[in-house]
Design a protein that fits this description.
mainly alpha
Length: about 750
């Protein structure tokens, strides 16, 4: 089931995933790349361009201005994708300057449209183009002659390096601009005597997302905002963890007190589950935030205290994520104490939300705390926290056996709140929770509908950088449910496509990768078990246990049972039941009871199996677990074969939800049991008293065989062919009897394992 506590991470410096930065001491300067952008803007204002091309170029202007410097090849390729004609004109303009003389660059700057007079063009003073041109003209006019000459030499190297032949497998790279002290817009007129001894700075730039050197303030802001947004909304398009770490280290080398870079470093460390570096970066972020005086200048001492309490709150959330509950509790108590001293009700509500989340993660009952949190959040008009609390109550209610209509009514009320306040993240969580609840109740059709609704929903988040919000936990849960639903129907090709998408969308180092990893392992395990390949299923148990201890124990018991190691399987099931009763995992408790009853049944312990089956049936009904109720009834029917007429009547009532929502294996088992009941009623084991019902049993067995063939379940097919041979023999259909007997013989020889007597199997 989709959890809600991941949405509680709070940082006062983050808004919609974008970091608001203020880079101290990082200067702007004129670069050859900026001249290339200026040439593009000049050609846009001077030449005639079609409307679609102009529209595409307009969308390109801001990223080119604010983004990191590109090589000439990258720049021209980007422009050419929008408008080839303009790209050629820009290349020609740069060629005239780079292959000409210094006066050609001077002439280019002198012919630029003046932003204060270009009323009818894009270069008007209040436009984006106009502001950029004003900035560039101001910067260029403040350069001394020696600075202009160095800029010209850099432009030449920038242009010619694009056409230079690569050496040693490396592409030609543009030259570095002059020293930032030379290009500093605020520097005084340069002293020629200090600079005459300097060499021309022709060192090539390293091609990367950022330059290896100090960035301008706007470039740093753009880089941080872009990476933070991508980490939140589409991690695949963000830099790889190692590359982003390198860029942040480079940025912090030039400005160690850059607080927001430390926070992005924290987010990046969380991607790879690096507890030490993430805690280190988080503490550095709040230390720098306090030392920089940002909060204090605006809010006095209150700003200082605000940073401290949110630092403690973020530290508590960090420890919660890594399962360090004691450290999380200490940090949370510290945040509560500081918030109470400052009378900060908003921070206290976040603390209360994390408090009940921490109690849930410990396995304690947090219903009272959650209800208090919802009431207080509603009182202080905090719809986000109130909705999170209600979703948490729904999650607890589902495990405690609340009826479906009550849970759905609660989710419906929260959905109204979500749409009213445009809380798209909580809408996704709500849909993922609804999917999980329907799956738990055994309503696969409804679960499939809700999962598709989530996957086809357009995000309410502002779509920046061309990405959609689709890498959240809710999307992972929905896709995993979708994969499992397809696997249950034997559609393994579709399953492989869904899992491939999950692997691409959520790389192994990402936060939610464990969800699809566990889903993939469970699907592989079930497939091998259905096909009777226990030697392939057994190694998967260790991998499943590493991700989920409870699931791993249950799968281990299944393998041992299939290998006829009943004593070991029984020991593990007892241990599993004690653990699940302690953690209140009702669904797994019922599944354990069924597996234990199966062990007793196969060892002829009918008197021991029956109470377990009845107890499991009562618990499944109490918690509205329809799929487990159906499994219980199947086993009950097997016990009731002594009175087949009654078994068949009850089976007709119970089989409908199985055929409507059940997995292929469950459908096949139900139909196989139906055929056995029909054969018992007609006396088909000896003589067909009712020919019509006997023919119906043949059709039922054929349908069951089709389901088992879909899963390549040879053991079940062997049972079907055995019954078919008996039935055809009693009906006098010799050819069909011989065919079924031959198929049974072939499968029996292939499996090479003595099957238990059919009457003894569940």
């Amino acid at each position: 089931m989709a959890s809600v506590h991941e949405s509680l991470y709070f940082n006062p410096m983050m808004t919609n995933g974008v970091v608001h930065v203020n880079v101290f001491g990082i200067k702007d300067w004129v670069t050859p790349y900026k001249i290339s952008v200026l040439a593009l803007l000049y050609e846009m204002t001077a030449s005639k361009i079609t409307l679609p091309e102009r529209r595409r170029l307009n969308q390109l202007i801001l990223p080119l201005q604010q983004g990191p410097d590109l090589t000439l090849g990258q720049f021209l390729q980007t422009v050419e994708e929008c408008c080839p004609q303009t790209a050629y004109a820009v290349k020609l303009r740069l060629h005239e300057m780079a292959d000409g003389e210094l006066k050609d660059m001077e002439y280019f700057f002198s012919t630029l449209p003046t932003p204060f007079t270009a009323f009818d063009s894009e270069a008007y003073k209040t436009s984006v183009v106009g502001l950029f041109m004003r900035h560039m003209l101001l910067a260029y006019n403040k350069l001394s002659f020696s600075q202009v000459y160095k800029l010209y030499k850099s432009l030449q190297h920038y242009y010619h390096s694009h056409y230079a032949k690569p050496t040693d497998g490396q592409e030609g790279l543009p030259a570095l601009v002059a020293d930032d002290s030379d290009m500093d817009l605020t520097s005084a007129e340069d002293t020629v005597g200090d600079r005459t001894g300097k060499e021309e700075m022709d060192t090539p730039l390293h091609v990367s997302e950022l330059r290896r050197g100090p960035l301008s303030q706007k470039q740093a802001e753009y880089f941080l905002a872009r990476q933070a947004y991508l980490l939140k909304n589409d991690e695949n398009k963000a830099l790889k963890p190692a590359a982003l770490q390198e860029e942040l280290n480079n940025m912090l080398k030039f400005n160690p007190d850059f607080a927001e870079a430390h926070y992005l470093n924290y987010l990046n460390s969380m991607r790879v589950q690096d507890i030490f570096l993430s805690a280190h970066s988080l503490l550095h972020y709040f230390d720098r935030l306090i030392l920089s005086g940002n909060e204090g200048k605006s809010n006095g001492d209150e700003g200082y205290g605000r940073s401290l309490r949110y630092a403690a709150l973020n530290l508590a959330s960090l420890h919660c994520r890594f399962g360090h509950y004691h450290q999380a509790d200490l940090a949370l108590q510290e945040a509560i104490r500081i918030a109470q001293e400052s009378n900060d009700h908003v921070c206290l509500q976040h603390c209360l939300s994390w408090l009940y989340t921490l109690q849930q993660m410990k396995g304690s009952d947090s219903t009272v705390l959650t209800e208090d949190s919802v009431k207080m959040a509603a009182h202080f008009c905090l719809p986000y926290l109130a909705s999170l609390g209600i979703q948490s109550l729904v999650q607890q209610g589902a495990t405690l056996g609340k009826t479906a209509h009550k849970l759905m009514d609660a989710l419906k009320d929260t959905d109204i709140l979500h749409w009213k306040h445009s809380l798209s993240e909580l809408i996704e969580i709500s849909l993922a929770q609804t999917t999980s609840i329907w799956r738990m109740y055994g309503k696969s059709t409804m679960a499939l509908q809700q999962a598709q609704l989530l996957l086809n929903m357009s995000s309410l988040e502002p779509v920046n950088f061309g990405v959609q919000q689709n890498n959240t936990e809710a999307f992972t849960v929905a896709l995993c449910h979708l994969a499992e639903l397809h696997a249950e129907q034997g559609l393994y090709f579709a399953v492989s496509e869904i899992l491939q998408h999950l692997k691409e969308q959520f790389p192994p180092h990402s936060q939610h990768a464990k969800l699809w990893m566990l889903c993939d392992l469970k699907i592989q395990f079930e497939r091998h078990m259905n096909e009777g390949k226990y030697h392939l299923a057994e190694p998967l148990v260790t991998a499943i246990s590493a991700l989920n201890k409870t699931e791993g124990l249950f799968r281990k018991a299944q393998v041992l049972k299939a290998l006829n190691r009943s004593t070991e399987a029984y020991s593990i099931l007892k241990r599993l039941q004690v653990h699940c009763e302690k953690t209140k995992c009702t669904e797994m408790v019922i599944r354990g009871m069924l597996a234990t009853a199966g062990l007793h049944w196969e060892s002829s312990g009918f008197s021991t199996a029956l109470p377990l089956l009845l107890q499991a049936l009562a618990s499944a009904r109490q918690h509205h677990l329809q799929s487990l109720v159906s499994r219980n009834r199947e086993t009950d029917f097997t016990l009731m074969l002594g009175v087949p007429e009654k078994a068949l009547n009850v089976l007709h009532e119970a089989i409908e939800p199985v055929l409507a929502h059940g997995a292929v294996m469950e459908k096949g088992r139900a139909l196989l049991l139906t055929a056995r009941c029909q054969m018992a009623v007609t006396g088909a084991y000896y003589l067909p008293a009712d020919f019509h019902l006997a023919v119906l049993a043949v059709d039922t067995l054929n349908e069951a065989a089709a389901y088992f063939s879909k899963l390549n379940c040879k053991e079940r097919l062997r049972d079907v062919h055995y019954l078919q041979a008996q039935l055809h023999h009693s009906l006098g259909q010799i050819s069909q009897c011989n065919k079924s007997a031959m198929l049974f013989r072939l499968l029996d020889q292939e499996l090479q394992s003595a099957a238990p007597p059919f009457s003894m199997r569940l």
